[in-house]
């Protein structure tokens, strides 16, 4: 019976990933209907916390975008990249990693990817090299960000065992940087140099292509909005406050001694406010401050591209995580009995399960929410779970994630592409190397630091 249910789960995910957009979410609901009506499964708790974090963080990022703060950050990155074009393969991924770590969403990099592609092409560096590892670095930045839904979910899981946000970040951030550096080294000689690539040389015979190649994608032509710098400062203060609260939860009020106290989705059983709730409160407060102090219209925030992307991500997480959690809960005893001995003796094998599920879910937050609680149930130590946390970045494996498709589109030379056999695409090598090395480095750092 479990294999029939698992097949339904996988089919729903595969169809949803092909639909794209909100496809994963709506197909997840079809899976839920089948599980409830045909198999009489009891629905698990929906991932309300993850959804609210995504909406809160993306709303703030959209306010940053509407206020011009995004353009300001892109201008800074652009100046760095254009002044050092020969180092684009090294600087590009560091920029996308920093952007995502700061904002908590990889979608923030749509403005920087065309600049990376342009700088590389003009320097006659194969754009596939910096673009591929830059996309992977942006994904690793998500699991390193203190304001991402994935990290908030991870912190909520490990906090019960006495670990805080700083424990997660001090392992994951340096491990990710080590993994990114390994990924950079893996692409330095990937593919033919542009001056030896017959496809590119053939395109150079077309004057229109040469003209497009030399056109600048510079974003500095338009003047910055008056509140651009202030919006960045407000966003940064919000991120800093979240880090402080995560590192020192004792500074927050405790309600355990209040008469009539009852734990709920915001306040835990020990009386302290949950980290997920604090992220929601702080980020939406920052959104309000950006709108008021920079005189940005709330309508502009709602129309921002990041807001639309966040809404799609929320629906996707809602359906697919709820369906996956229901399947896991209904079959928990069988799953635990079959996986328990293996992950106890070889904890790193759980990282493979995280990676495979993230390949299907296309969401770090969804994978963390769906599978990490199982790791706790199976008795995997918390330091090992933290080390394996970046393994949820398997969303590059099947080339359907928006940042991958955007990078392919931005590369005018055509060097960044999906291969004939689907899986032999430009992001496979740097993705496997970077994520694999990050997890390995995480085990080493967790042993030293935790």
From TrEMBL:
GO molecular-function terms, A-Z: C4-dicarboxylate transmembrane transporter activity
Topology term for the membrane: Multi-pass membrane protein
Primary localization: membrane
Places the protein is found: Cell inner membrane
The keyword Hydrolase belongs to this UniProt entry's keyword annotation: no
Record InterPro entries: Anaer_Dcu_memb_transpt (IPR004668)
A GO cellular-component term linked to this record: plasma membrane
Chain ranges passing through the membrane: 6-38, 50-68, 88-110, 169-188, 232-252, 272-294, 306-325, 345-363, 370-392, 431-449
Keywords: Cell inner membrane, Cell membrane, Membrane, Transmembrane, Transmembrane helix, Transport
Origin: domain of life: Bacteria
Family named by the database record: Belongs to the DcuA/DcuB transporter (TC 2.A.13.1) family.
Protein name (record): Anaerobic c4-dicarboxylate membrane transporter family protein
Organism from which the protein derives: Solitalea canadensis (strain ATCC 29591 / DSM 3403 / JCM 21819 / LMG 8368 / NBRC 15130 / NCIMB 12057 / USAM 9D) (Flexibacter canadensis)
